[in-house]
Amino acid sequence: MTAAWTPASSASPVLSVLDLVPVSSGRNRADALAEMVELARTADRSGYERYYLAEHHGSITYLASATTVLMGQVLAATERVGVSSGGIMLPNHAPLVIAEQVGTLATMYPGRVGLGIGRAPGTDPVTAAALRRRAADPGRFTEEILEVLAYLGGVEGFHSVPGSLLPVEDPDASARAVPQTVRAVPGEGTSPRVAVLGSSVNGARVAGSLGLPFIVASHFAPAPAEAALVTYRSVFDAQAPSVVEDRRPHAAAAVNVMVAETAEEAERLFFTQRAATARIVGGRPAPLDPPADDAAAWRALASGKDAAVEASLALSFVGTADAVAARLHELAERWDLDELLVLTYAHDAAARRRSYERLASAWR
Q1: Residue 168 pLDDT
Q2: Most Cβ neighbours (<10 Å): which of 35, 106, 339, 354?
Q3: What distance in Å separates the CA atoms of residue 228 and residue 165, rounded to the nearest whole number?
Q4: Cα R_g (the chain), whole angstroms
Q5: How far apart are CA 20 and CA 56, in angstroms?
Q6: CB neighbour list of residue 350: distance below 8 Å, 6 or more residues apart
Q7: Neighbouring-strand partners of residue 15
């Protein structure tokens, strides 16, 4: 049965940027990283709420492997915008290392750092095995989130002990009984905003049970997105009490967007994202393709899996700024969203920045 949703807020949802740091054909990797910084500056000037950086490994298309390093570069280059992982894949890292790295950034840039956490590998199985200190255990995802939160000082009534987290009624008494032997320095006490990322009801349940914000990866998995958001709110409302006190639900969704001066130009530019998705689905990854004269040329890259490409991109908003902004508002109202993460690919970095600028202006 579908749960009834109570609007989280009467305020308009905020816009944020989601960046996988793609590299375009004909450009080198240093160019792509420099273009990331320029896009972040654009987002900062344009009023975007947060700048999320993903984690991908072993990719020749996306360069966001050292997520916290990139976060530091964006923070240093901007003045206002919040900067968050979107997300760090928890099975790839020791919770203490995440807390130390994100906590260091939060110490340097107080109030601007966030931590988005996911549990997908963000890569192929062979690379995932090389990254992980142990075999992935989905059953430990909740426990490891709690461990990160405890190191960062974000959970009242929990203390960290090597290998476990123990809920206690009296934290002071527990600290006397079982000393906290592991500390994230710097990091402890910074309590950055932590969110759970997911593409299904599984991640939604985790976020809801912990009372944390949830971001659904509807930019590549739109089909289960609405069910995941309903599950998140239902579990959040039922949980007792929230691990993080005085926290209301915060629901966010990632979407694909391309904005241009005309709808025709936006469709032409969106070819690049269609081709990128087709290459991934078809097993032919490569740097981003430029727009093609034949709008259907992406199909040749999909290895016969055209339907999978179209399904993956079903939640895409392409057109003029006013038209796209109106459709995004409709989605936010239908899903009762607090935040929209905008993902835009363009072969030309300047066209990508203009898309974000136009959307922000229309949104305001």
Answers
A1: 45
A2: 106
A3: 27
A4: 20
A5: 8
A6: none
A7: 340
Closest to 56 in 3D by CA, of 100, 28, 77, 86: 86
Helix (H, G, I), strand (E, B) or coil at 161: strand
Q: How confident is the model at residue 167 (pLDDT cuts 50, 70, 90)?
A: very low
Instruction: Write down the pLDDT at residue 91.
Output: 87
Q: Which helix (H) or strand (E) holds 340?
A: strand 339-343
* Lookup: tokens for 12: 């308009």
C-beta separation of 113 from 71 below 8 A: yes
SS3 51: strand
Strands (E), the chain: 14-19, 50-53, 82-85, 88-89, 113-118, 158-161, 164-167, 193-198, 214-216, 251-259, 316-319, 339-343
Left if phi > 0, otherwise alpha if psi is -120 to 50, otherwise beta: which for 7?
beta
* Confidence tier at 9 by pLDDT (50, 70, 90): very low
DSSP assignment string, 243-284: SSTT----EEEEEEEEE-SSHHHHHHHHHHHHHHHHHHHHT-
Is residue 256 very low, low, confident or very high in pLDDT (cuts 50, 70, 90)?
Answer: very high
Comparing CA positions, the residue from 194, 189, 183, 197 lying closest to residue 96 is 183
Q: pLDDT tens digits, residue range 12-62?
A: 899 999 999 999 999 999 999 999 999 999 999 999 999 999 999 999 999
Taking Cα atoms as reference points, which of 81, 83, 95, 205 lies closest to residue 146? 95
Look at strands 164-167 and 158-161 and give their pairing.
antiparallel
- Give the separation between CA 224 and CA 24, rounded to whole angstroms: 30
